Amino acid sequence: MNTVVAERNNPKESRDDKRQSLERPLKLLTFTTLFPNREEPNHGVFVENRLRHLVCSGKVESVVAAPVPYFPTALRGIAEWGKYARVEHREERHGLVIHHPRYLTIPRFGMTVSPALLAAGTIRFVRKILANGGDFDAIDAHYLYPDGIAALWIGKQIGRPVVITARGSDVNLIPRYRLPRQMIQWAIAEAAGLIAVSTALKDALVDLGAAPERVDVLRNGVDLTLFRPVDRVRARQALGLTRPTLLSVGHLIVRKGHDRVIEALRDLPEFELLIVGEGPERERLTRMIELAGLSDRVRILGSIPHDELPAVYTAADALVLASSREGWANVLLESMACGTPVVASNIWGNPEVVSAPDAGVLTSENTPFGIAEGVRNLFKNLPARAAVRHYAEGFGWEETTEGQLAVFRRVLAQYRSRLASPTTAD
Question: How far, CA to CA in Å, does 411 sit from each of 162, 339, 365, 397?
């Protein structure tokens, strides 16, 4: 007997089942390669933060599958790749249990096959959960390519709806490649729900074929308890700061634009610059600082644990973000929550974060000249640090958490409705 016939025969029982389903926590499989681990504690921390606040609502439970690359033994001695072998298969962070299944990676040749490899490396883990009595209502996937593609393939094999969150280069860069673009467009059509972290990313999804009404904009928030002003005098003394200080935070890669901020220091002789981050650009940036004769005013601090960043943000007079691409730049809100205003490149997403004078300014152009001009404009009318903090307080996680709950409830209601749509008895 199918679901509809059962409801007709037992209407009270059906209503009770539905009420219990709504009252119990939603069970999610959070699936993403963008998640911290002990080797990379800041990797994808924005995904972890969103999930932590969602779970803390008491209305969601989540099993986290955060696959990491597997490389043949011969390649594990290479530092950049070998670190993944040291990632534990299971770990706990902030009350979340995170599993790290392995998936084969083919360096330099894996872009088009990575969704299939990612799905193949994870499906056995997912089936094991189900075989051992575990269950979940939906898959919560982050990043359209390759993660979203793989999540959809897994979802189709086990019969679960998939919600995909688009976060940046999965929409504004990867679709430039023909085959990934086709797979991304397939994922947009097949996903049960789509989330974008900014209006600009929603517009990009629509350009790729998404119906506007199918995309929910749920911005990232900021942890206002962790990111808050600390003793500024002590923070500056600890870092040995004596001049007005700029701060650039982010992975040391080309698109983060740290080199443009360094160049801007030539036209800002009264300022010093701290750079927080690690990555493949470190050697080039270090050499650039030396050749420019800026070693006395520019320091690269390397990677800093997330819970130690508030002191660095507080110590600075302004954060400078010179990225060429972002989905939603979390460092902007983190800085503002610590009372430090920002100078940000005028790229999509950033105007949604820096939307008032108390937040900071957007640059006229994302060049060393534009950055220097933006810094001077900010310091002509520097907002009070308390006003900057007050602005950031409007970006807590509560609204985003409620938005996620609404999305998953809607998706599950639609999914169950489709399962119940046949009207013929067995």
Answer: 9, 38, 41, 21
CB-based contact 206:177 (threshold 8 Å): no
Domain locations in the chain as residue ranges: 3-221+398-419, 232-394
Taking the complete model, does pTM exceed 0.70, yes or no?
Answer: yes
Rounded to whole angstroms, how far apart are CA atoms 208 and 128? 35
Identify the pLDDT of residue 5: 33
Q: How many residues does the chain have?
A: 426
Cα–Cα distance for residue pair 319/166, rounded to 1 Å: 25
Domain 3-221+398-419, CATH class in plain words = alpha beta
The stretches of 210-257 forming alpha helices (DSSP H) are: 232-239
Q: What is the pLDDT of residues 218-231, one digit of tens each?
A: 999 999 999 999 99
146 preceded by a cis bond (ω within 30 of 0):
yes
Domain 232-394 in CATH 2.40.400.10: no
Share of the chain above pLDDT 70, in %: 90
Separation between Cα atoms, residue 12 and residue 7, nearest integer Å: 8
Q: How crowded is the C-beta side of 16, counted as CA atoms within 13 Å?
A: 4
